[in-house]
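User: Second chain of the day. Same drill as before.
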Amino acid sequence: MAIETANGKIELRTSEIVKLAEVTGIDLKIVGQTTLIASASTDTYITEAVVVTTATNTVTVQPTISIGITPNWNEFLTSTALNAEMANNNRFQSFFQGISRNTTRFGGGTTIKLNVSVGSTATTHTATVELWGYIIP
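Assistant: Same format as last time:
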């Protein structure tokens, strides 16, 4: 359920598992961070991340990714090399649960990012990342 706050912002308030974020066009060849959630609501819980390859060509080295907050970017997903199948198939999906195989709580105002610590060696390697979870009102 979405509600409008006093300052005019729309906030999702639910205890059901929903898609919290979807970021498209992420270049997995580039080392660095991509913002997935710019400012988490209070008590945002991530239960799963989905990485979907959207375009691949001539991938010889798989990227290594993690998901979390500064400075280590690994509170939800620790450093993980993507499956080699993701190099060969567009629309290949990998599902990642949190470190504890439960949920990971992020406090209000937190910026959650995808970190590419080892970029893929490829002509083209892009992805969409989805974060699933819930927000406790």
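Residues 1-6 have pLDDT under 50 and may be disordered.

User: Great, on to the next one.
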